C-alpha cells in the first residue's frame, strides 16, 4: 500500500529537492537517490577543501632565505669561529716549539699544523702579506678543535699554570717540566737550511697558485732531481678548482673549506719534499 502511494509522488519535480526535508526521519530508506550536486554546493565543497589545504600548507616551514634571522646568525657564527681560529694561531705562534707541540698533542692536531706554525714564526715582520695568508691557513686547520679545550690550553700556557696544564695533559709536575724539552734544539746550520727550504716552499706555493709565469717555469724546470711533473700539475689544478667552488648553503661552504684546506696541504707536502731533495747552494 505504501509503495502504491509513494510511486506517483516520486515523479513530482519539487519532491526531488525537498523530500529529504519534509519526510519523517523513519522513512529515509524510501527516499530517492541524493540529488545532483548544484554549482553552489560544489563551490562550497571546493572552498572548504581549499581552506583546509591552505591551512595545512601554512604549517609547513618555509626554506631559509637571506633575510632569515637564523640563517644570518649561522653565517655570523661562522665568521666569528674563523676569526677565533686565526687568533688561536697567532697566540700559538708566540709560544716555544715544545709548548706548541704539547698543545697540539693534547688537542689531537697533526704535524701539518706544527710545520705551518714553525713557518709563520720564521717569517719576518716585513713579510706582512705572507704572514696574513699563513695565519688564515693555520686558522682553517684549527677550526675543528674543541674551543673550550684550546682556550684553556692557551691560557694555561700563557699564565704558566702548571696545575691546569697537569689536568689538561695528564702529566705529573716532573713530566710536565721535562715535556718542555722534548724537542731537541736545531743546530744553527740545520736551522738556516730549514729556513731556506721553508722560504722556498712558500715562494713556490704562492707563485704556482697566483700563476706567476717566472716561478712556475722555475719549479717545472728544476734540474738534478726526478719528480712527477704531471702529479704537480694535478695538485695545482686541484687547489685552483677548490678555490673557485661556490657554496650554496652553510653545509656546502664547510665542505668547500675542507676541500680547499686538503688541496693546499697536499701541494705543500709535495713542494716541501721536492725542496728538501735540492741541495742548498745559497
TrEMBL record:
PANTHER family for this protein: OS04G0250700 PROTEIN (PTHR36898:SF1), OSJNBB0026I12.6 PROTEIN (PTHR36898)
InterPro entries: DarP, DarP_sf
Record-given protein name: Uncharacterized protein
One protein family per Pfam: DarP
Region span, Disordered: 59-78
Species, as recorded: Canavalia gladiata
Residue ranges, compositional bias (Basic and acidic residues): 69-78
